[in-house]
Amino acid sequence: MRNARILISALAFAVSLSALAADIPVKLYRNPNCGCCDLYAEHLEANGFDVTLIDTFDMASIKHRFGVPEKLEGCHTATIGGYVVEGLVPASLVKRLLDERRPVKGISLPGMPVGAPGMPGDKRAPLEVYYLGKQGKPEVFAAF
Fold first, then answer.
1. What domain count does the chain have?
2. What's the predicted TM-score (pTM) here?
3. 3-class DSSP assignment, residue 40
4. Centroid of chain to Cα 24
5. pLDDT in tens, 16-60
6. Which run of H or E residues covers position 83?
7. 8 is a domain residue
8. Number of helices (H), then strands (E), in the chain
9. DSSP letters along 35-63, please?
């Protein structure tokens, strides 16, 4: 009986977290010819986000508008909860950023690394996600 209560409580907590994330809109700016962007959007949706895809063939202007440095550019640019999320950042790290409410512009996973959400294959090493909006050398937010 005690285990059943623990299980029910855990399930209720998990459902409430998903419900909270479902209320968070995402605008994902992407090149419409990019397949990884579609897979990344599916990754976010599977983790409770409400994704709106915005197609553009001028990603350079989007990255410039949101202040993404060239060395931290990823495949696509998203705005989520007042932050810029650049590239294939896992949903769990996006949720962590939203929970912590750090005073930064956002976070970035540069490039299109194998093993990141939306990119097939196994990671060869841990991938680092960086803060956006910090001056100087990029600072690591998290690794996965």
1. 1
2. 0.82
3. helix
4. 12
5. 444 444 589 999 999 999 889 999 999 999 999 999 999 999 999
6. strand 83-87
7. no
8. 4, 7
9. HHHHHHHHHHHHTT-EEEEEE-S-HHHHH
